[in-house]
Amino acid sequence: MSYTVLARKYRSQTFDDVIGQDPIAQTLKNAIKTDRVAHAYLFTGTRGVGKTTMARILAKALNCLAADKPTTEPCCKCDSCLAVNTGDDIDVIEIDGASNNRVDEIRELRENAIFRPARSRFKIYIIDEVHMLTVSAFNALLKTLEEPPSHIKFIFATTEPNKVIATIQSRCQRFDFNNIGPAAIAEQLKSILKKEKIKYEDDLVLPLAKMANGSMRDGLSLLDRLISAGVEPLNASLLEQYLGCPNSEKICNLIGQIGNSDAAGTLAAIEDLISTGLGEVQIVDSLIDYMRDLMVVKSTGPDSKLVILTEQQRKRAGELAEKFDIAALIYNIAALEKLHWAVKNSETSRALLEALLLRFSLSEHFLNVDELLSQLKGSSASTYSPAAVKKKVPRAVISPPADQSPATSHEPRVMSAEPSETPASCDIQSIKDRWKSILKLLGPGTGGLLGSAVPSRFEDGILTFEFDTAAKAHIFERSGRIKQIEALLSKEFSTNVRIKFEIAAEQTQTESGTTPPNTGSQRRNEIINDPAVKTVLMGLDATITGIEED
């Protein structure tokens, strides 16, 4: 006797048996109870979620010979039910849309539809992968589909509903089948293993269910492959050996090395994974999945129901999540997704993978610009130490000068606000001559914000600054540092100094007239001259190496 695969052997037989599609099953049952069964249905969803199975169950419910009328509980024992299960019923015609997609075949279907069923209440056409029909074939079906004989029912199934023309969809009741959750798949796998009397370990079922990607049929097919290996009890190590699933412990080790900022350990962990025969794409996919779990655990706690993990895995995930912050995990997931497509088409995929993961592990050397700005703006003592920034957000647009060593570039810089020993004469020319030194006296935060302004005149104790845009003047006015500047300048020049701001004349004319087009070079200049960018550059003695806009 030939072997029947698990996906066929344990195919759902009634509405209540269908896994993960309760709302659809309940709707169809209510339609049968109230005698409101439509003449055409469109079942959509990914592979293996129960579309064809639900179509067969509906056909059995409508034609079950053990009942006097359509029933929500087909007997599954009468000739009609048994024939539907095997696909041999003369009144329930299953058609593969991929191989019967021509207009001539649909015309033949339409001509045969006028004949009444041989023994059942309804003649039911189940067309699988209906999106494969040609436009001409769809059009040939329209009239029959809109006004079918009373004894005809159509059930269409497709994985790509967008390819089904709108005139067909509008004549059907559409049901969208959801992907089945890993927990539901895991419960079904456990039930089948018990019925098959196959020994297994608990750490097997959940990873296997997650590998199914929402498809019950895929989950059962994977289980079939493991059972065929002839090893008992089934355990998680078989997933790596027979199904190519990355070892979860090795993935955790790799993420742990990244979290510990251990560059050498990260490279060794990558080598450990690749040496088992895994490809770079598989490693990237596994890292995305696991870092997503860490992101959820970090946001909601290790007991969250949003992650499907065993108790031991939850504990490990909680420990690993402490090594990262949420911003870093978000960045890592996005960067890995971009790498996924690059790795597929690159001949140096391993180098790309290693480079990105090293960037993750060395993220402490990259500064979070937002936090840097907040420290600079909030510093009242004009003292700044870049080493104080420890958040692991691996994102940077600046780098220290090439001739400056890292140790030198990270030393704290202390700005003195003491006046010079010899008070200078206070006039506009002397202020302009000493403007750079004055900016340094103001410190990196205030000096950076004021760096885009130019002292234009000094009259009656009022020093006027010109900004090239009104936006920059507004930013500085909101910074709340006017009194600080006035106090420092008054002390520096031994006279009472007040300041005010104006917009450059040529800029005012431009704003009142037609705005010139914003070219790429103009946009770059605007970014470089932005007060916030200047603050960062002055605070780190850095240079801009690249500009990226989201």
How would you describe this protein?
It is a single chain. The protein is an alpha/beta fold and 550 residues long. The chain has four domains: 6-176, 3-Layer(aba) Sandwich (Rossmann fold); 182-242, Helicase, Ruva Protein, domain 3 (Orthogonal Bundle); 248-364, Zinc Finger, Delta Prime, domain 3 (Up-down Bundle), CATH 1.20.272.10; 428-544, DnaA, N-terminal domain (GMP Synthetase, Chain A, domain 3), CATH 3.30.300.180. The protein is built from 26 helices and twelve strands. The chain has helices at 6-9, 22-33, 51-63, 79-86, 103-112, 135-146, 166-169, 182-195, 202-211, 216-228, 237-242, 248-259, 263-274, 280-300, 311-321, 326-344, 349-361, 369-378, 406-409, 428-433, 435-450, 470-478, 482-493, 505-512, 520-528, 531-540, and strands at 40-44, 92-96, 123-128, 152-158, 173-176, 383-384, 398-399, 413-414, 453-459, 462-467, 498-503, 543-544. The protein has a five-stranded parallel sheet with strand order 2-3-4-1-5, covered by helices on one side. Helix 6 (135-146) links the parallel strand 3 and strand 4. The longest helix is centred in the middle third of the chain and has 21 residues, at 280-300. The two termini are 62 Å apart.
